[in-house]
Specification:
The strands form 4 sheets. The protein has a 10-stranded mixed beta sheet with strand order 1-7-6-5-4-3-2-15-16-17, covered by helices on one side. A 7-stranded mixed beta sheet has the order 8-9-10-11-12-13-14. Strands 18-20 form a two-stranded antiparallel ribbon. By secondary structure, it is an alpha/beta fold. 50% of the residues are buried. The chain has 3 domains: 86 residues, no CATH class; 270 residues, Ribonuclease Z/Hydroxyacylglutathione hydrolase-like (Metallo-beta-lactamase, Chain A, 4-Layer Sandwich), CATH 3.60.15.10; 46 residues, no CATH class. A hairpin with a 2-residue loop joins β10 and β11. It is globular, with a radius of gyration of 23 Å. α6 runs parallel beside α7. It contains 12 helices and 21 strands.
Amino acid sequence: MFRKFLALSLALLLAVASLTACSSGGNETAPIAQTPASASSSPTISAEEPIQTNQPAEPTPTEQAEELAPDSQAEETALAEALEKLEATVTAAPAVETERPAAQASTAEPVSLPKATDTGNNAGKDLIVSIIDVGQADSILIQLPNSQSMLIDAGNNGDGDDVVSFIRGKGISKIDYVLATHPHEDHIGGMDDVINGFDIGKVYMPRATTTTATFEDMLLAIQSKGLKVDTASAGVTILDSDGLSIKLLAPVGSGYDDLNNFSAVAKLTYGSTSFLFQGDAEGLSETEMLDSGANLSADVLKVGHHGSDSSTTDEFLKKVSPKFAAISCGTDNQYGHPTQAVLDKLAGIKTYRTDLNGTITFVSNGKDVSVSSQKSSDKTYEATNGSGTTSETAPPKPTEAPVPTEKPSPTEAPAPTEKPAPTFTPTPTPEPASESTDSIVYITKSGEKYHSDGCRYLKSSKIETTLSDAKSRGFTPCSVCNPPK
């Protein structure tokens, strides 16, 4: 078991070493080395530019489940040495704390386009963008008007087969551009299935990694196909030809504490229409994009971080000024996505959600954008932005999917994944009325947050302290378990 993990680690080392920076108009690529699974010695790693190293952060439950345990004390020591070499070349992935549940409200109207516009590899003149319904995850298929295709993310581990089936259902056999926005499981979980299942052109990834099996699976799939990896960062041009372009606006910086801010943000322009795909980029990344002076305006915004209030800042939304917004989120998800605060900001913008509308499809002819959505048994409708009005081309719309009810107080919850997870009863969160500076809270060995007893981030380590002590040492409250403040 150890040898298998060590071999995977070495393969990962080789893969990471192949990531090279790209520049606008001429993206340099580097091959991922083919490493035999039986390799028993560490290869020499050479990189053209250093990769920052952070202290390992608290793993998410999904990442904990993916860790491979050593079989003996000797193997544990050797494993630690291998991981130390790995951490010397990668940016560690911090655990991402999500918001407590919030009431949800729908601003979406289920609509649909005529099936005649869905033309496989799209040899016509329409641009087709499908926000695939993968629950609490992200996956976007883009059928370009030049007959090429692009995939942005591939959902959770359990979504791989569904994403592959969706793409094949469009008559696509080659994906010309693959963009893995950032290495979180709910964005790259199904990527190995996609890479193994199709002819792949180019692969783009930011310079950030994790040590999870999910990330290793994706890199091994890339390696097995003999593919190269292009670094995804602000200023990179993926495509620019005949009024059709795909350019990356983020990440602008590096060394982020939150892996979400490494998210590659892509702007797709066709004629006079444009789309902005935000991944999980949060407020910090949004501010950096604003400060960079990039042209952020877009007709369609794929809202950041599943509609979390960690994204969609007022100034950013004002600059994008979209006519349409799309949110990819799971029905009754434990995070309360999208939050009411974000929905309020989107008031006046035609907003569609995969939890309510299913897969959302936008079609551009280079001048106008039309939108449709399709749940498994829904009737379909059409809407066009044109003058900003909506015109139905079908009988009166069916009853919309029920609006999720208000969530209870925060509960323990696993990181988003389609895989079954054990059900357990959470420890009640202390009520604000009983808070005091002498309240007992808990911290971890490597985290920067303090927590209430029972928080899921205490699974790796749990150190009891007082609220006043935690605050005096610079710890801040966890946004998941809502401890005393």
